[in-house]
Design goal:
single chain, alpha+beta, Nucleotidyltransferase, domain 5, Dna Ligase, domain 1, 4 domains, 5-stranded mixed sheet, globular, cell membrane, SHS2_FtsA, cell cycle, cell division
Length: about 475
């Protein structure tokens, strides 16, 4: 009998860390088995700045997910974000020795390896090399070159670059939390997998993921990733502005933003006031909701303007690059009242809020289908692609009947017998059925396997 492929995603955000365990059901939809969430301590603007606190937060989220699901987590696919991420467009080619042979996977891999050798700025490392369109002997716009004849194979690439130290710090935190790293994915790409349909990616769409510390952008056109960017502002700067503007503590500012905040000041009347308890016996503070909305509006405009500058840099005003499907907003910041209307007003583009429920099983918890969990859902989907058994049922290890038990002290040979059984149970789920995969998935996988191995080697040698 085929074992379920249990997948685990870990979203290390600035405000929260989410561990999510899931599997595909018989209809190909994602069934969430357990979610663990903890307050993110030690992460600022998507970058780890305190290893010890981050490890504690990861362990807390992992523990909660394990308790909720009844599964023991072995490895995770983790999302990478942060202000150090940048992307470049690059074109490269190879001349094939024998044009009489058809182009195979090894030719594409050779081309990708060549791009991986690109000289980067000091301290930077290539995270993703994503082929876009291929050219064979000058014939352009080829999406699948395998099986074709040609002497010169050329491709345009979307290359995502990040700071090596930041990526290794994330690897260190995961390893120190007692789990393995099975894959790395750029967070906007994970969010895109969770909330965008294939039709939107074909038509042209900009995904804006407004997190706590960063706002991530991913632009798709003709089904291909065209541009990515990470802007170092998110929901936290809005909270900070409310805290300063209203002279209140951060906890109150966050509550005000979530419960009464709006990105559109015209919605609130002048006489709408909320009273906030004073600190240590001080008089309560009265805050006008119109003023609150003005503070939020000013900061949201700034964030959206920066994102819109990136969309313009991609060249969406060009007819061929037009984003017909407009903008999709996701992440915790997308829950802010009237943000959709404000984004439409600033950009003049159709906008919708992106919920990850398209890929989720029908019986999923309502909370999980919130924009807040888009990245985590995308990371679980990515983990499923890896076809690894990332978690095993706790009861499969604990409740396996032992050959015999005595109420006396355990002898050495019995211990080894029980240990052997545990090893067998852990090995069983690793058997996977082989299935056909697209070139892009194979390329992405082989590259990531090597990249993750590189990080593991670095961490092992650093000890």
């Amino acid at each position: 009998m085929e074992k379920d492929n249990i997948a685990v995603g870990l979203d290390i955000g600035t405000t929260k860390i989410v561990a999510m365990i899931g599997k595909k059901n018989e209809y190909g939809k994602l069934e969430i088995l357990g979610v663990g969430k903890s307050k993110s301590l030690g992460v600022a603007r998507g970058v780890v700045n305190n290893i010890t606190q981050t490890i504690q937060s990861i362990q807390q989220a992992i523990q909660e997910a394990e308790n909720n699901s009844g599964y023991k987590i072995k490895d995770v696919v983790v999302g990478i974000a942060g202000q150090h991420i940048r992307s470049i467009q690059h074109t490269d080619y190879i001349s094939r020795n024998n044009p009489e042979e058809v182009i195979g996977e090894n030719d594409i891999q050779l081309l990708i390896d060549q791009v991986n050798k690109l000289a980067m700025l000091p301290g930077e490392e290539i995270i993703h090399v994503l082929p876009q369109e291929f050219k064979i002997d000058g014939q352009a716009e080829i999406k699948e070159p395998i099986g074709m004849y040609g002497g010169r194979l050329e491709s345009s690439f979307h290359v995502v670059v990040g700071q090596a130290s930041s990526i290794r710090n994330v690897g260190r935190c995961i390893q120190s939390s007692g789990i393995e790293l099975s894959g790395l994915t750029l967070e906007p790409l994970a969010s895109a997998d969770a909330v965008l349909s294939q039709e939107e990616k074909e038509a042209g769409v900009a995904l804006i993921d407004i997190g706590g510390g960063t706002t991530d952008l991913a632009i798709f056109k003709d089904g291909i990733i065209r541009h990515t960017a990470v802007i170092p502002f998110g929901g936290n700067v809005i909270t900070d502005d409310i805290k300063e503007g209203c002279s209140i503590i951060e906890k109150q500012a966050e509550l005000l933003k979530v419960k009464f905040g709006s990105a559109w000041p015209g919605e609130n009347r002048d006489n709408e006031i909320v009273s906030i308890p004073g600190l240590r016996g001080r008089e309560p503070k009265e805050i006008s909701l119109k003023n609150l909305s003005k503070i939020i509006n000013a900061r949201v405009i700034e964030i959206i303007d920066q994102v819109f500058t990136e969309i313009k840099a991609y060249g969406h005003e060009d007819t061929k690059k037009k984003l017909i499907a407009g903008i999709v907003l996701t992440g915790g910041g997308a829950q802010l009242k009237h943000i959709k209307q404000l984004v439409e007003y600033i950009t003049g583009m159709d906008t919708r809020i992106g919920y990850p429920n398209e890929h989720l099983a029908g019986n999923s918890d309502e909370e999980i289908s919130s924009p807040l969990y888009a990245t985590a859902v995308g990371l679980v989907m990515n983990s499923i692609e890896n076809s690894t058994q990332s978690a095993i049922a706790i009861n499969a290890v604990k409740e396996k009947p032992k050959p015999y038990q005595r109420p006396v002290a355990v002898h050495q040979h019995e211990v080894s017998e029980v240990y052997m059984e545990r090893e067998e149970v852990e090995e069983l789920p690793r058997m996977n059925t082989v299935k056909e995969e697209s070139t892009e998935t194979k390329i992405r996988k082989s590259f990531f396997d090597r990249y993750v191995d590189k990080i593991k080697d670095f961490l092992d040698n650093a000890e």
